[in-house]
Amino acid sequence: MTEETSLPAAPDARRALLAGRLKERMAARNYALSYPQQRLWFLHQLDPANAVYIVPLIYRVSGPLDVAAMEHALTEVVRRHQALRTVFRLVEDVPRQFVRPPGPVPIPVRDLSGHADPVAEAGRLAREEARRPFDLETDLMVRPLLLKLGPADHWFCLTLHHIACDGWSLGLLDTELAAFYRAFPAGEAPELPPLTVQYVDFAEEQAAQLTGDPLELMLGYWRDRLAGVPALASLPADFPRPPTQSHAGDHVDFAIDPAVAEQVARLARACGGTPFAVLLAAFATLVHAHTGADEVIVGSPVTGRPRENLQRLIGFFANTVVQRIDVSGEPTFRELVARARDDSRAAVANQELPFEKLVEELHPSRDPAHNPIFQLMLSYHDSDPEGLALPGCQVNMVPGDTSTAKFDLTLSITRSGDRLSARLEYSTDLFAAETAGAFGEQFRAVLARAVADPDRSIGRLPVLSEAEERRVLVEWNPPAEPVSGALVHELIAEQAARTPDAIALLAASGPAGDALTYRELDRRADALAARLRARGVRADVPVGVY
Predict the structure, then answer these.
(1) Which phi and psi angles does 323 have, rounded to 5°?
(2) What 3-state class would DSSP assign to 160?
(3) Helices 433-452 and 258-270 meet at what angle, rounded to 10?
(4) Is the model's pLDDT at 15 over the cut of 80?
(5) What is the chain's percent helix, strand, coil content, to nearest 5?
(6) How many CB atoms lie within 10 A of CB 42?
(7) Nearest to 446 by CA among 348, 454, 300
(8) pTM, rounded to two decimals
(9) How far apart, in whole angstroms, are the C-alpha atoms of residue 452 and residue 449?
(10) Which percentage of the chain shows pLDDT scores above 70?
(11) CA-CA to 328 of 20 to 30 Å: which in 199, 213, 351, 490?
(12) DSSP state, 129?
């Protein structure tokens, strides 16, 4: 989701109180955790080795990489953003943030140029790095590694913990690394906007705001909106749900036809919404087809940066809002887009409440087997067209080896120019790879058919892809083998003459041994035929059979 709303300015008295608290915390040199950080800190305590909240970035740099300039750039970015040098420790049994002083950030270099297969070895080391856990009490929240495949061929790996970053942060990271890298040879400072606040300021302010009447006002909307939501509302799975989520996962990638992407944009404009509303409606249509439910519950991320000065900070600001899409009454796809548009607008207008606080206050049924409130996630965002731009070098992202899943299914759609690409992340505890692949193909099929004919009822939109339709209608139903010209009752009569005492039918239920021989079956068929003729049934008159 890309829509944002701004929080109302706090009253002067509250700002004065907040300023006093901030001075106290500065003197104590430790700070409250934000609500998203609290959740990740708690999950880390439960399973420190779990890699589900590790964020791996792999840049393949072709060209004369200046390692000293990159080391300088990373050091300055970590100096500029306190979130990257924050550690988390208990103070009187309460987790608190401590900001480490800035210092040099060296980049370890592994030379793979003499390896028999440097690319394969780089992939192995990058996967190993992406699974290596962080020590939240001592580590920087960003971990660099440079893999040298040749004189002008490097993999630059940056591994971050989600407790210190979000998707928005990664774009800032690219921009600022490139700026400091370019400025290093001339000994200059890049022209970057000054940071007037740091992440710890946001965390303290969030804690101050989420009390009393403001909290009750935020909770009011969500209490009404989520009343009666089932504890578990997911898709039918291939495997039984384990008692505790392992977060083991995999993913499938697929592209959406550019012509369909253009139709998505056109329909969004016609409906007065965003492409997200169209994609959400298509996702809800597909989930409805699989479940038959009258409403679809989906989580969606929002940036969580309501003020401009927060938009320049690296940190974990992203929040999650819950979409509750009404698919009842056989709406047309256009009508469903309007419903999705209205629901997403209302959700964004009430996004200030952290999802973690919402769960804490609403007390939904908690089960370690699944995420509370929703189990399906849909995200949409525009990609950064620049990325990490280094002078004299070509930089491309190397796809990471995703082996985790935060939810049952997460469909992430990215717009780059006029193209849409998608990644479907799925829990391997629940779904086979074939099922996930089929779901991705079905989404593409539903989206294409829906935007081509938005005034068709969603119940009449074919869900199967063309390949699946061919498999069901043709491959699984080959032409029947040729048989003799005799009718079925004639064949039974012939069999009754040959083997009158052989068993013809066994009852699926009823007393054991309940069976008919061919002689008895033929006799009963003759009796039924006589009864039908007595009632006026003649040739070519249809007769219902129960």
Answers:
(1) -95, 130
(2) strand
(3) 50
(4) no
(5) 40, 20, 40
(6) 12
(7) 454
(8) 0.79
(9) 5
(10) 92
(11) 351
(12) H
pLDDT in tens, 283-295: 999 999 999 999 9
Q: How many CB atoms lie within 10 A of CB 505?
A: 13
Identify residue 482 by its one-letter amino acid code: P
The amino acid occupying position 454 is P
Q: Residue written as tokens 């012939």?
A: 494
Residue with structure tokens 């856990």?
133
- DSSP run (H or E) holding 224: helix 212-225
In 3D space, the residue among 69, 77, 60 whose CA is nearest the CA of residue 140 turns out to be: 77
At 310, the amino acid letter reads L
From the list 376, 486, 485, 504, the residue with the least C-alpha distance to 431 is: 376
Total count of residues recorded for the chain? 546
**Distance from the Cα of residue 32 to its chain's centroid:** 28
Give me the helix-helix angle, 258-270 and 333-349, nearest 10°: 70
Looking at residue 50, what is its pLDDT? 87
CA distances from 182 to 153, 188, 263 (A): 19, 9, 40
Q: DSSP label at 136? A: T
DSSP H or E segment with residue 43: helix 35-46
Residue 404 three-state SS: strand
Q: Which two tokens stand for residue 416?
A: 């780059």
Alpha-carbon distance of 355 to 269, in angstroms, equals 30
